[in-house]
Amino acid sequence: MKILVTGAAGFIGYHLSKKLIREGHIVVGLDNINDYYDVNLKYARLNELGIQRSDAESWNVLSESDKFKENFTFVRMHLENRDELPTLFRNERFDVVCNLAAQAGVRYSLENPEAYIDSNVVGFLNILESCRHNSIKHLLYASSSSVYGESKEPVFSIADRVDHPMSLYAATKKSNELMAFTYSHLYGVQTTGLRFFTVYGPWGRPDMALFLFTDAIAKDNTIKVFNNGEMSRDFTYIDDIVAGIEILINKEPAKENTPPYWLANIGNGEPQSLMEFIEAIEKHMGKEAEKVFLPMQPGDVPRTSADTSELQKLGYKSTTGIDRGVEAFIDWYKAFYLSK
User: Fold this and answer.
1) Per-residue pLDDT at 257
2) What is the pLDDT of residues 236-268, one digit of tens each?
3) Between β-strands 2-6 and 26-31, what pairing exists: parallel, antiparallel or unpaired?
4) What is the mean pLDDT of residues 298-302?
5) What is the pLDDT of residue 339?
6) Exposed, middle or buried, 139 (CB in 10 Å: 0-12/13-18/19+)?
7) Residue 250 and residue 4: Cα distance in Å, rounded?
8) Which terminus, N or C, of the chain has the lesser number of Cβ atoms within 10 Å?
9) Model confidence band, residue 29 (pLDDT cutoffs 50, 70, 90)
10) How do the domains of the chain map onto residue ranges?
11) pLDDT tops 70 at residue 340
């Protein structure tokens, strides 16, 4: 298939693009390469896909990869661009769209709310309109476990009510699900919302806990442990996330789904406490972290726990435990940052 992956220079988008390329799909990667975090990491991911930085810096121009010349191209573009994005869709005639581009981060949404509306709401509307007018067979889009807010349920199910987002980031993800439902209902666009649960692994974002803790330990700095460590997360390794997306890309729409709208939790299904997570980092870094215990941050939630039973019916199974996943990240971190 010919697949558009937005957010291709991002953490999940990079890994998904690499896997789809290796599976023989034709992939067009799109990213605006914003400076929310170090752009050098984003360019390095693209370089792994064969795209040189000098090519990736050009706006609205498709750049061919050297490494995957037959089936990968990249374009730097904003989702909010109402002229260039529809033109890209008309010219490239995609079969499937995986919209992973978004302004990420819960805490940053307290500082810069406008960025979340521009990218996550206006940009997503442009994606929906482009899919509607170009007969896209299937739109998959990144939602988030954050839509569950402070759910009191033992596990978070796609059948749960999610009416109380605790951050603007979560609210924009919930709005994406509502917008997708409307387009599925009105125009028959097949949509699948991907509720990701705390994704981690090599090439991960510098604003995520695993990176922050590892980097602080490497530099003998203190680490901030929020809610006094009384938190748990359904930490999900990046390879398991990509495996779940691949299953859903190939999923046949259920005949009883009218409109053709679906949601999926992609998680590990075995939540770990924050302190257990930190212990795994300390083990593989070979030193103990100096911890500063702090109260809960605004917009954060104490726990997440994924019910993946619906996805398991399609063959999904999370296979990477915390110890092995953290070790893989730290091996990458040391090679990328400490060996230079």
Assistant:
1) 66
2) 999 999 999 999 998 876 666 678 999 999 999
3) parallel
4) 83
5) 82
6) buried
7) 15
8) C
9) very high
10) 2-205+236-269+304-320
11) no
CA pair distance 90, 104, nearest whole angstrom? 28
Q: Identify which of 277, 265, 279 has the alpha carbon closest to the alpha carbon of residue 195.
A: 265
Task: List all residues 6 or more positions away from 167 whose beta carbon is below 8 Å from its beta carbon.
Answer: 106, 109, 110, 146, 298, 299, 300
Helix (H) or strand (E) holding 140: strand 138-142
User: What is the C-alpha to C-alpha distance for residues 176 and 84, in angstroms, rounded to an integer?
Assistant: 21
In one-letter notation, the amino acid at residue 233 is: R
Q: What is the DSSP string of 24-39?
A: T-EEEEEE---SSS-H
Find all residues with CB under 8 Å of 97, minimum gap 6, and list them.
3, 4, 6, 127, 130, 131, 136, 138, 139, 140
CATH 3.40.50.300 fits 2-205+236-269+304-320, yes or no: no
User: 115-147: per-residue pLDDT in tens?
Assistant: 999 999 999 999 999 999 999 999 999 999 999
Of 50-64, 144-158, 246-260, 321-335, the range with the lowest mean pLDDT is 246-260
Cα 248 from chain centroid? 15
User: Hey, what amino acid is at 90?
Assistant: R
| DSSP three-state, residue 141 | strand
The secondary structure of 177-228 as a DSSP string is HHHHHHHHHHH---EEEEEE--EESTT--TTSHHHHHHHHHHTT-EEEEGGG
Q: Are strands 63-64 and 272-273 parallel, antiparallel or unpaired?
A: unpaired
User: How big is the chain, counted in residues?
Assistant: 340
C-beta of residue 101 within 8 angstroms of C-beta of residue 32 = yes
The amino acid that residue 111 corresponds to is E
Q: Which of the residues are catalytic?
A: 169
Q: Which of 106, 142, 99, 150 is nearest to 241 (CA)?
A: 142
> What's the pLDDT score for residue 251?
84
| Token code pair at residue 94 | 């995609």
